[in-house]
Specification:
mainly alpha
């Protein structure tokens, strides 16, 4: 009997099989730990989406503090949009991040139209021109740039950004507040 067990462990396929069985048996606890994972290290890529999102969120609290519509409660249309993004974040965090960025760029295009900036101007150029015209404070521009960088990271490498529904919801909330603030310009 012992010789049989020893022969099993000497077989070249036994260790990979044992590892697969072990992972399968521990899949519940391993999946529970997955949301705590902030960083996935690759050869030349080390995204820290959640950490950067928290940093931007902290800065946004100060910059968007005067956002009275958030404190007073969202308008009905925004509540429906937020609810839809929450459901989307549960199904696909990547899609929620993509969708939540559209209102920001739309608000930026509307601000460009109000201040006679040509409509085909890219968002970063609009931001630069609004800053030159002193229509937007530098801190708000910095929040925009940092959120845009996170959006780009998530869009270009969703499998490496380790996106979770909670991250997508937090991103969508910040994007919504930023869009609202840009509309007020």
């Amino acid at each position: 009997m012992l010789a049989f067990i020893a022969a099993i462990f000497k077989a070249p396929i036994s260790w990979p099989t044992a590892l697969v069985i072990l992972v399968w048996l521990l899949r519940g606890p391993l999946l529970a730990l997955l949301p705590e994972l902030d960083t996935l290290r690759g050869k030349h890529f080390e995204p820290q989406f959640r950490k950067k999102l928290k940093e931007v969120g902290g800065k946004a609290e100060v910059v968007l503090l005067s956002d009275e519509t958030t404190a007073a409660g969202e308008r009905q249309g925004e509540r429906g949009e937020a609810r839809a993004l929450t459901l989307l974040a549960e199904a696909s965090p990547w899609a929620a991040i993509v969708e939540s960025w559209f209102p920001v760029e739309s608000a930026l295009q509307a601000a460009a139209a109000r201040y006679a900036i040509p409509p085909a101007t890219p968002p970063t150029s609009i931001l630069c021109q609004l800053s030159q015209q002193q229509k937007i404070e530098p801190a708000l521009g910095k929040i925009f740039e940092e959120l845009r960088a996170l959006h780009t990271q998530a869009v270009q490498a969703p499998e490496l950004a380790l996106l979770f529904p909670s991250d997508a919801k937090a991103f969508a909330q910040l994007a919504s507040r930023l869009a609202r603030r840009v509309r007020e310009l």
